[in-house]
Structures are given as C-alpha cells and as structure tokens.
Amino acid sequence: MAELLRFATAGSVDDGKSTLIGRLLFDSKSIFEDQLASMADASQRMGLGGTNLALLTDGLRAEREQGITIDVAYRYFATPRRKFIIADTPGHVQYTRNMVTGASTADLAIVLIDARKGVLEQSRRHAFIASLLRIPHLVLAVNKMDLVDYDQGRFEEIVDEFRSFAAKLDVTDLTFIPLSALEGDNVVTRSANMDWYEGSSLLHHLESVHIASDRNLIDARFPVQYVLRPHSEEFHDYRGYAGRVAAGVFKPGDEVMVLPSGFGSTIASIDTFDGPVDEAFAPMSVTIRLTDEIDVSRGDMICRPQNQPIASQDLEAMVCWLTEASSLTPRTKLGIKHTTRSARAMVTGIHYRLDINTLHRDESVATLSLNEIGRVSLRTTQPLFFDEYRRSRETGSFILIDEATNATVGAGMILGES
Questions:
Q1: Whether residue 314 is found in the same domain as residue 299
Q2: Which CATH number covers residue 35?
Q3: Is 60 exceeded by the pLDDT of residue 138?
C-alpha cells in the first residue's frame, strides 16, 4: 500500500503557494479536464494571458477577487510512489489560526520565499509555527527564480540568511530547493535553467523523504473511543475497545494497563475491518480485546504498565487562541478535549504571549486574543493522560471549547505537568 504524506504550504502573500500546488497537480497529471477548463475560463474572464494555476486551490470567491488565500484548502493527489494530502495555508498574519489548524497534522511543511524579496517577517513566522507544531521536515522553496535570472548567488544568499534564523528553532530536517512554480522549474522535473543546483526536484523530495521513523513507536498509547459490547446471539461473548492507536505498537499477548482505573490485563486479540492482525501501530484504527473483563470506558487510555503517560489535572501548554468572539483570560472556564477524553478546564495563569515575528516573550500580558500564542497553565476537572507534545503530537495536543456555543476557541500543545 502506498505511504501517505501530509504536507502544508506556507509563506508570505504572493509568494506563489497556490500556483505551486497548481503546478504540482498539473505536471503530475492530477487535474481533471473539467477543472482545467474551468480554470482557463476563469483566467480568461480575469483578463489573464494564460491559465492561472492558483485558481485550483483559491476556491472562495473572496480569495479570487482579492488574489489571496483566506481559508485552508486541501487537495489530494497520488504518484506511483506515494499518496499526498496538501494543506494550502494562508500567509496573512490575521489568518495564523488557519495555518495552525491546517499544518497541525502535517509530516512536512513547505515555506515559500520570493527570490526577489528574500526572507521576510512572514517567512520567519511560518517557519517558527512549523517548528512550534513540531513538523518533522521543513522545505524552504525559493520561488520565482525566473525573475532573478536563475541566479545561484541570490539563492545562496537566501539560504545563508534563513539557515542562521533556523538555528534558533527546533528544526530537525531542513532542505532548500530553488524553483519557479510559474514556469515549472524544479517542481516535478529538474530544471535545465539551474544546472548549478545538484539536489532533487520538489516532487522527488516529497516522494522520497523518510517519514516512517517520525511517529512515536516507543510509548504505547491507545485512547478508547468506543466500547463494543455483546449485542446479539452471534456476538454474545464479544467485548472489545475500538479506537485509533495514538503512539507505539500493540501485539496480542502484551501486558497492558487501563487508566484511570489502573487495572491490568493482557491483549487477547487485535481486530480490524479486514480481520485480526498480529500488531497495531499509529495511526491504525483497531479493536483491542482483553483477556479479563474489566471496566473500560470511552476516554480511558490503554498503555503499558512500565510505560505510562503523565496523569495530571494541572498542565502547562502553548495555546493558540482561535476566536475573535472572546479572549483567553485567567479564570476562564472552558471545555477541553484531549484524545477521546472530555473534561472542563480553568485557566489558572497566562505566563507570557509569544511574539511570533521576533520570538520575544511578553510577560506583561493578561489575555490572549485572536491568532495570539502564549504559555498558559490549566487545571482540569479530571486527570488527562498525556505526553509532552515534543514526544507525541497525538497525546500532547488538545482543543479548548466554548461550552455555550460549542465552538473550538483554542488549540494547545502540552509542555508538561504544572
């Protein structure tokens, strides 16, 4: 089965993110003829000479009229080597929340830079958010190389500037690719215009980047989503616990523990839609059956007795505030959803707001407003079973919910127990 790579594109306004995705899909022959005809018609109505490939992702009318990306656009395509899900995220600072949500599940982020403008404040902001979200692989795509005559010196100047900034971030894998999304240079095939560049094209890099070891296969974590109880004569003795493996590997015969009860048991079998399997690992959806009949409910966590998550009602987290309807202030009470567990939470303190352009910590603030990110302390009504976000993105993240409107108002990355 072909491996799936999720990647997000980010960058400043007019750096060509939507054009790049259009070019990737067009050159890899992943656009239907009616989509191509629709783009050609829209381009003609806008008075453009050729087909504007950016129209493939900029689907909202406001986006087309203003020539900007507002909401996250998802696109799917596949090559013989891999399947891909693209999240095209906006560049404007007022849409930071859209980038955070669009990039939160990405294995790789592409930060585009206009070769003429170099590394802008927005480029640094997007790279920082990618590192905050702990996206394992980062590609700096220096776009519009055709407008600087494919100059090697200009490319190397941008690489040096970005590399010195990236040294302050937690980026494990950084790749630089010069390209022209408009002309197709180094997007799907290597460009003859930049024979000085010895690396691979963008698509080849996306097809070959190693992502299998990015997932946490050490800490076995299985949040229970649904309990399958006996419901007919045929399945009168079937009791299983369905959910998605968040981290680690589970096998029949493994000794496990259920939190919060602390009861122990052994895995009898692991079932899937296609039948039993010998092992389950993230992000497989499975049903685990245990040898003992113990009390297990939705929101419980199955783990190993010798490797348990942190169980606490007090946590420290980086929170991105997602709504303009209200602000995050101390003593605010909200719903919290962490893996399959729901509880209520109260903000016990805001330590600082992070200036995502300068990385400066402003400790004088008392609130977080729309698109702002800060370090927050929370106290929950019942224990959550979590790992630090840097160890596990699945069990280290949560969302905050306004209980009056049921709207998601915050996204958090757990730093640890407070």
A1: no
A2: 3.40.50.300
A3: yes
Residue 252 covered by a domain: yes
Vertex 390 angle, CA 413 and 77, to 5°: 85
The answer to whether the Cα torsion of 405, 410, 414, 418 is positive or negative is negative
Identity of residue 162:
F
- Name the pTM for this structure: 0.85
Average pLDDT along the chain: 87
Domain boundary (303, 330, 359) is at 303
Contact call for residues 3 and 84 (beta carbons, < 8 A): no
| Domain contains 215 | no
In a 10 Å sphere around its CB, with 0-12 CB exposed, 13-18 middle and 19+ buried, how is residue 254 labelled? middle
Q: What are phi and psi of 121, to 5 degrees?
A: -55, -40
Is there a single domain that holds both residue 56 and residue 135?
A: yes
The residues that bridge with 346 in the sheet, in sequence order, are: 333, 379
The tokens for 391 are 């160890």
Domain count, the chain: 3
Range of the domain at 103: 3-208
Q: Which two tokens stand for residue 255?
A: 């000794």
Confidence band, pLDDT 50/70/90 cuts, at residue 67:
very low
Q: Work out the angle between the directed axes of helices 152-166 and 121-132 (0-180°, nearest 10).
A: 50
